[in-house]
Specification:
The chain is 39% helix and 16% strand. The protein is α/β, with parallel strands linked by helices.
């Protein structure tokens, strides 16, 4: 038998391409007819969000390697330039599948369930009147169009925010004829607007914010004619650079890096598929990108925002049935966690068994006068975390509370800095793990006098 040569590149699967294939499997859940309809929409949105993060971190890292001239290959023998080309091809195919599924399958099936996204071409007069009032009341006061001219250069565009570029004819009130303008969609407004029942024929009729802006963009430029309106979105490098060797204060270092995440180097440009070649090339030039980074899409460029529909529609038959986790029998007979533990350990199997006993354990520890200290790790928490509330209650009652918070939990860094501050104000001791490593373990240790 010939000895296997482990240096052959064909034996290895590239990490980045493998991650794209994982995301394809997420999309396959949205294509699965046995999955409830609104859950299929959710999987489609998840695949879009996953792709956003892939570009923000993985593609951004490869572009940094190319920027600094790296030609180093991995075990698969692909250089960063070669890998970016493969990623562009695979991502483009994946994006096309996403929008084909949305337009050809999910939207028609949602319509059959009386959940309709009404396109501008299908607006009835009563839709048009209500939408016009909505635009005047909710949108017009907060929109700030920027005409491009020597005194108004191309603005800084936020990461993953929805924008419009408008081509114009004529002169404004000041005699300027820049020909182009930029409009940012307000982040404070929903991307999916529910049309009131008395203004439409269906119980769940929606209109996209982008459609409303498209329809009324001319109102933003009195005296001028809007000849084109194209939505676009740019994805930026969101990796935070913290030098493990030079760092003195991790919190301060992160606080310095976080603002740059919104305006770092661009890595991808998404535009509507009706965007002209001239406009697309103009945008690519502004963001220092090339055609390999351009994605033309047949639908909303911020696909993941369609997830709002599931929150606005109450149709239990179109979602997975609710799951009620089990409770171990010992915990049903007695409520004092410490008495139960005195008679033996408790093993919980999540998510099949309830997490409530863990919360009760921490709450009881916070209130128990014989508990001396609580030590815990935290990686991510919600905005209204009962775990954090219990830790703060324990600290305020005089217990020694020590919390290890992982500040480098990706995309939760800012929230974790605020969390650390809140806990410290309550009297807890906060430490940030080990620089260069991520503390992902979930542990609670309670010291109790018995």
């Amino acid at each position: 038998m010939n000895e296997l040569n482990l240096k052959h590149p064909e034996l290895y699967i590239n990490r980045e391409l493998s991650l794209l294939e994982f995301n394809r499997r997420v999309l396959e859940q949205a294509q699965d007819k046995s999955v409830p309809l609104l859950e299929r929409l959710r999987f489609l949105c998840i695949s879009s969000t996953n792709l956003d993060e892939f570009f923000e971190i993985r593609v951004a890292g490869l572009k940094e390697q190319v920027k600094y001239g790296s030609v180093q290959t991995g075990s698969d023998n692909m250089t960063p330039v070669e890998l970016l080309k493969r990623i562009s091809e695979a991502s483009r195919e994946l994006v096309n599948e996403q929008y084909k599924l949305l337009n050809d399958v999910l939207i028609p099936e949602l319509a059959r369930e009386k959940i309709r996204i009404i396109r501008r071409a299908n607006w009835k007069p009563k839709h048009t009147r209500w939408i016009k009032r909505y635009f005047n009341r909710e949108l017009l006061p907060v929109l700030s169009p920027i005409g491009l001219d020597p005194s108004h250069p191309f603005p800084k565009v936020l990461n993953k925010n929805l924008y419009f570029i408008i081509s114009l004819e004529g002169k404004d009130a000041f005699g300027r004829d820049s020909g182009l303008a930029i409009v940012q969609a307000p982040r404070s407004l929903p991307r999916i607007i529910h049309i009131p029942r008395d203004r439409t024929s269906g119980p769940h009729d929606f209109v996209l914010l982008s459609s409303i802006i498209h329809a009324h963009v001319g109102d933003l430029f009195p005296g001028m004619k809007a000849t084109g309106c194209y939505q676009f979105r740019v994805t930026r490098n969101s990796e935070l650079f913290v030098d493990d060797e030079e760092i003195d204060d991790l919190v301060r270092a992160l606080e310095g890096e976080l603002p740059s995440r919104r305006f770092n180097d661009a890595v991808r440009l998404e535009v509507a598929d009706n965007c002209t070649k001239e406009i697309a090339n103009f945008l690519l030039q502004q963001f220092n990108l090339n055609n390999q980074d351009l994605y033309k899409v047949n639908g909303p460029v911020n696909l993941n925002r369609l997830l709002e529909i599931q929150e606005l529609v109450d149709s239990p038959d179109l979602v997975y049935p609710g799951f009620v986790p089990d409770m171990p029998p010992r915990l049903l007979k007695q409520t004092n966690i410490f008495e139960i533990l005195h008679n033996g350990d408790i093993l919980l199997h999540h998510p099949f068994q309830s997490f409530v006993p863990v919360i009760d354990f921490l709450r009881q520890a916070a209130a128990d006068p014989t508990v001396l200290s609580i030590k815990q790790t935290l990686y991510r928490t919600g905005t209204d975390s009962v775990i954090v509330d219990a830790l703060k209650d324990a600290a305020r009652s005089g217990k020694e509370v020590t919390v290890v918070i992982e500040l480098m939990a990706r995309f939760d860094e800012e929230a974790n800095i605020e969390l650390a501050s809140d806990l410290q104000e309550a009297g807890a001791h906060v430490v940030y793990g080990v620089v260069g490593y991520k503390t992902h373990a979930k542990m609670i240790m309670v010291v109790r006098r018995e």
